[in-house]
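Subject: for your reference before the review

Hello V.,

The reviewers asked for a structural picture of the protein, and I figured it would be easier to keep everything in one thread rather than splitting it across files. Below is the amino acid sequence we used in the manuscript, unchanged from the supplementary table.
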Amino acid sequence: MCGLIGWLKFERPLDGREVESARRAASLLRHRGPDAEGEWVGPNCYLGHRRLKIVDLSDEANQPFWSRDRRLVTIYNGEVYNYIELREELERKGSIFHTSSDTEVFIEAFKQWGPKAFNRFDGMFAAAIYDVKENILHLVRDHLGQKPLYYHVYDEGVVFASELRAFMDLDGFSWRLDRGNFLKYLASGYYPYETTPMQGIRKLLPGTYGLVRKGRISLEQYWDSVPGESLATTDFAEAAEEVERLISVSCWRSMRADVPYGVFLSGGIDSGIVLRACIEANPDVSCFSVAMEDKEFDESKKAMLIARHLKIAKHRIFTLTKDRLAETFDRFLKCSDEPHGDPGYVNTCFLAASSRPDIAVGISGDGGDELFAGYHPFIGLKYAPFMNSVPGPIIALMKRLVPVVLSDSGGYLELGFRASSYLGGFPAPDATRFALWLSTVEPEELHSLCPWADRRFLSRYGEPGTLYDFSTAINKKTEGRSDVQRLLYYYQKIFLPEFVCFHTDRASMLSSLEVRSPLLSVPLVEFANQLPDHFKIRGSIGKYLLRELLRRSHIPGGIVQGKKQGFTFPVARHLRQDLRGHLSALVKLDAWDGDVISRAHLAAMVDQHLTRRRNLYRTLFSLIVFDAWLQRHPRLVWT
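And here is what came back from the structure prediction:
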């Protein structure tokens, strides 16, 4: 795993100050790659790289890395797990390799096949390839967005980097905060799709290839997989056997490393399946879990049951005590690169930091919910047609009554919390309902919190240039599909890359730890998206096929049948107790000067949360995180 930064000028050379500022920016990415640093400075191009050594630990594999003919140079972040198979194919075509790294395979594959090479890769990657002869820059991000890549195109050139922090001190730029994107952040709890906090800086979308040539950038989606676009002609038993085979192959490839590795075992279905597949390839594999003091959020006993059943000899459990939680939370606030309102980010930070002395690569169970319908909204789909027929005033009344009738103690996805979230999706068209179900605050309350916002922008209906336009764009691609398939696609295109993969990458990279997710193997994703809905969800049981795979392994039934338990901490309770001071400080912040936030409405929300009249932790947590991030970048100003 690595960090990269690049700067290409269209017409004139980079001057000395610009090169020095790019070097400083590269040094800010040291946590992503503490093992080696490298750069190439051309007449009008700078490429900087920080390397975390995982495959081929020699200096010959350091970056920037050149093709044999010295025409192409790349800076690359990630791992191509099938690099050995690709290397053998390229050798048959005449390629000669001088290292055993996947980086050399990456650039040789591009030299052989051009952009078509990206669809041959099974892995996670973000990269830049510069053609010295033609003065052409190629940018690419992996199929599912596991690795980040930001870019900014302006009149004189383009800059790009693995993290936002690398842009902050580049010479000649004055970044401004984007108010519209801030509203999207508050609504989602993270910056969705291609948005970022700053005007002009965008995320390269997953499965996208960018070509920078003659002063402009053109973007092309090189890969997509739409659930239900084609259905596999197989019965359930055959499908389960194929899924099991694909997981085994993916886990076997995910363990290709020249450094120690281990499996992150939560105690849930997905990580249990991954661990089982990993021990088939390496019976000596170790695993790591987190124990929580709050029993409602603790899965360590289930993790122990799985580890014992699978006869794991090396299983370490780290306890996230109140003191350690406070330390990790403080580190999270001080070090986060982009505001992100997921409390599970904190847990992942703790697990990564705790396991890093033992391993350099962690293997996770990310992706099972997004491929096999593991989230609560999938259950709610069958009631949506009825809710569509309920008059708006009745829905509004139900929204007011839920917090009164169903008290919320701040536990994990309690009934009142789920009911409020579900009702938030009405009234709305299909194109935006999924976004509203996952929203942290409804558009109507968002206007009260940010009175300056144009009501038309806060529309529930997802018109172009409004709050949920990204949801409309995604849902257009699944018109005519089943509701389950449409929701799966939404999760895979929005929630997976910018919520799940984002916090996995950033939290692990803070400790210079690489995390791999075998369930996000491209062949597995493509096959899972061909399976019919009833293979994934039956009645109120999600991830039906994955549960069947665990059942075959005779994993204890309580785990197979258990409800989903997120990897998080009881943030709603902590905001009323240990973290209460953050809420008090939140209302008084200078950051909200200029009417960015209505202090009066924010104070009312804080009071409602503290007195348990409403569970508003998601909005309040997002604001705390945003403020901590903004304090580290005082030169940023609002548009």
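For the response letter, the relevant points are probably these. Residues 483-509 form the longest helix (27 residues). Residues 236-373+495-560 form a domain with the Rossmann fold fold (CATH 3.40.50.620).

Happy to draft the paragraph if you're swamped.

O.
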